[in-house]
Design brief:
The protein is of the alpha/beta class. The protein has eleven helices and 20 strands. It has two domains: about 250 residues, 3-Layer(aba) Sandwich (Rossmann fold); about 100 residues, GMP Synthetase, Chain A, domain 3, CATH 3.30.300.30. Helix 5 packs across helix 6 and helix 7 packs across helix 8. It binds adenosine monophosphate and zinc ion.
Length: about 450
């Protein structure tokens, strides 16, 4: 289903937990308040918040009387988690902890989150809710093509898939040829991967002559990195599947924070488990309804490592209108970038996702690209390296020049910067199995 297609019949949408997913807003907010009080109680058991919350006048859950009191709680940032490493945010004795996970470290040294048994159970429930809400059920075969280990995407989705009752294949990331073999042998119907790995899988399938008809894939969950609507469509068209956007972060357990339903139009933030706010990252004040800003999340579903008002650095906004699926939990727009991945090129602010949008909308272009920023004299120089699609031949210079020119002009029209464009053969640019590294910024940091 595309976001603008006709309204589906009422029985089209399936809910994992109908009572919670469709509860009225006043009931949902009452539930949030109750859970926030509990989260504050857990927080006050950690060395970090025991020091921080009383300074803001919060000495016990009694000090939280309405949801508006959330604003009295100071923000928690990534550097706080690093400073509290290893146990400053632990609320329970170590013998109560059964698992730890860490952030993937895309933005620096990892931060660690601990789970007790109850935490794992609740987290699994949220992931199962997401998976089931895309139309999956126990008849599905789920191949989890993402890194297992400290990263939450592997074990988080694995447990959620089992909870739904699907047959889960823990294939992990990488080893592309083996991935199709598994899909063919076991009749995989749904996969989870980063969007870049899905594109990579598709291009290898094509180059190895694996026919689409030899696999029975229907759906993919794609997340862990920002991607555009055009990238989603491209994956959907190439693989002939439905792609659902999956958002999460280790500080909020991992996957299962916000997910698209079958309407595929925004990600429902599970507000019985997380409180979401959108703030202006400069003034730290809330933005107006529907405006874009930094997402701040409070975890209402974890005891061992309570985290309140976490500044995610992710840029998004809430839809103001309700979803056709009947769920009452608000929807987030696709993450467009982070407050910290913004590039300033010769004084112009741009997001890598803007360049991606332009490239991925072009049919002649392949699945991989790299944005390179360097100094040339005193000026910044932007180079966009792009793999060409299979129909373009590298030894025929006329169409290549035309394509190079087209990409350059379209990027310039979008971001006002005139980039240098380099075309590369399919498969020539580096591919990572985890999160794709799309930007190479070699400018000296202190100039
Ligand atoms: P980690 O804690 O390592 O799981 O990284 C979490 C970060 O990955 C988030 O804060 C986002 O910046 C990014 N991320 C995860 N899922 C998505 C998604 N669906 N779209 C955009 N960015 C995402
Ligand atoms: Zn919905």
């Amino acid at each position: 289903m595309t976001p603008t297609s006709l309204t589906p019949p009422p029985d089209y949408f399936q809910y994992w937990n109908p009572e919670i997913e469709t509860m009225s807003r006043p009931e949902l907010e009452a539930l949030q308040l109750e859970k926030l009080k509990i989260a504050v109680t857990w927080a006050l058991r950690t060395p970090f918040y025991r020091e921080r919350l009383p300074k803001a006048g919060i000495n016990s859950a009694e000090d939280i009387k309405t949801l508006a009191d959330l604003k009295r709680i100071p923000f928690t940032a990534k550097h706080d988690l690093r400073e509290a490493f290893p146990y400053g945010l632990l609320s329970v004795p170590k013998e109560e902890v059964i698992r730890l996970h860490a952030s993937s470290g895309t933005t620096g040294t990892p931060t660690t989150i601990y789970f007790n048994r109850e935490d794992i159970k609740k987290w699994t429930g949220y992931v199962a809710r997401c998976i089931y809400g895309t139309g999956c059920n126990k008849a599905d075969v789920f191949q989890n093509m993402i890194t297992y280990g400290l990263f939450t995407g592997g074990l988080g989705f694995h447990a959620g898939g089992e909870e739904v009752g699907m047959l889960v294949i823990p294939s992990g990331a990488g080893n592309t040829t083996r991935q199709f073999r598994l899909m063919q042998d076991f009749g995989t119907t749904v996969v989870h991967a980063t969007p870049s790995f899905l594109l990579h899988v598709e291009s290898i399938m094509r180059s190895e002559g694996v026919s689409r008809d030899s696999i029975c894939l229907k759906r993919a969950f794609a997340g862990a990195e920002p991607y555009s609507e055009d990238t989603r469509r491209r994956i959907e068209d190439l693989l002939k599947i439905d792609v659902y956007n999956s958002y999460g972060l280790s500080e909020m357990n991992g996957p299962g924070v916000a997910f698209e339903c079958q309407a595929k139009n925004g990600l429902h933030l599970w507000e019985d488990g997380y409180i979401g706010e959108i703030i202006n990252p400069d003034t730290l004040e809330p933005v107006k309804d529907g405006e874009t800003g930094e997402l701040v999340l409070t975890c209402l579903c974890r005891e061992a490592t309570p985290i309140l008002r976490y500044r995610t650095r992710d840029l998004s906004s809430f839809y103001t209108e309700p979803c056709v699926c009947g769920r009452t939990h608000r929807r987030l727009r696709r993450i467009t970038g982070r407050t910290d991945d913004m590039l300033i090129i010769n004084g112009v602010n741009i997001f890598p996702s803007q360049i991606e949008e332009v490239i991925m909308a072009m049919g002649e272009v392949g699945n991989n690209y790299l944005i390179v920023v360097e100094k040339e004299g005193v000026l910044d120089r932007l180079t966009v390296k792009v793999e060409v699609g299979p129909d373009i031949f590298m030894d025929d210079s006329r169409p290549l020049n035309a394509l190079r020119d087209k990409i350059r002009k379209t990027i310039q029209a979008s971001i006002t910067i005139n980039p240098r464009v380099e075309l590369h053969e399919s498969g020539a640019l580096p591919i990572s199995e985890g999160k794709a590294k799309r930007v190479q910024d070699s400018r000296p940091k202190d100039v």
